[in-house]
Amino acid sequence: MRAHPVFGDSLIAGCVGLPDLVLVAGKTGAGYLLAWLLLAGPLVFRRKRPTLAAYLVLAGGLVQLVADRVPVRPADLALGVMLYTLVADVGRRQAMLYAASLAGGAVLWSLSMIRADAENAVVLFAGIVTLALCWALGEFVGARRAYHVEVERRLRLLELERDNQARIAVAEERARIARELHDVVAHAVSVIVVQADGAGYALRSSPDMAARALQTISETGRQALVELRRLLGVLRSSGDPDGADRAPQPDVGGLSELAGTVRAIGLPVRLSTSGDLDGLPTGISLGVYRIVQESLTNTLKHAGPGAAAEVRVTRLDDRVEVEVEDNGSGSLAGLQHRSELATLSSGNGLIGMRERASVLGGTLEAGPKIGGGWRVRAVLPLGASGEVA
User: Fold this and answer.
1) 3-state secondary structure 363-380
2) Up-side HSE of residue 197: CA atoms within 13 Å toward CB?
3) If both were cysteines, with which of 20, 86, 170, 262 could 75 make a disulfide (CB 3.0 to 4.6 Å apart)?
4) What confidence tens digit (pLDDT) does each residue in 225-257 have?
């Protein structure tokens, strides 16, 4: 267990004061005792009140010089101890003022010595060297303490930054999972609702068509459950090294299957692609798939009967362009309704697409076309090597 600072300072005061009592035992006058108390006593609280202790010790030296008439005594080491304390704990400015006071005391001491013999010169030189060593030791210890304080401050900043980065990463992962959940659920539910309505109308007049619709509902529901289980596995997982099975990762290779599923529901979809889409980075490929999926889901929900959609995905040297158009809701009232949906709460899907495009460094525009219909256009940038810019 670390000792209390007062205990250590008391030991220093004892080491300075006790030899003084032993070596100068014959000097028992009032001036000697007062000087001894002022030289050794303040060392006990030198770290708690360093400036006050330093000048009390200086006062003790002055009492020794004027009243005690003992030229040199062991307790004089307290002057060096307090100079070290001021340099290490208070600062150079206070220490320089104190050193100037010590220099003035040395001048007075020299003048008090009537004969300037060799012994007094040696004592004066030894005192100057001792004080210089105390100053240098204070500089070293003060620099070490300042270094440790700065290191601790930077460590705290690094810990704070690490915690902030962890919170940001958690928030981004939650947003990603929320987008995935919305895409999976919105698409599956839209398909199921459309097929259920169709099956209801065709149940008596065309049982075969109703059976196909029910089959599509079943397949869509199972696929949605599989993707939801895999997504929820991300939330339950704690350090599973196999990351491939923890989250659904569709890509542009699944666009043909997606278009076929939507055609089976009853929405004609024409898909055209150009460029090397198989070599897209995983994030870009997933983003393209989700944007097309959400756009077709919105077309299913809002385009109205008789609508058709066209999907175009083009890879250029520095970007991937995605366009999804439909010819539904061609009337002015229909377009106004869909614009309101894009602006208000139904815009969750559009907000999700814009966020996904923004995360990938791209842009997304959605709105009515001139002449009727709806258009979604996304541009996702690529680096020179095909990586995300």
Assistant:
1) EEEEEECCCCCEEEEEEE
2) 10
3) 20
4) 777 776 666 565 544 444 444 444 688 888 998
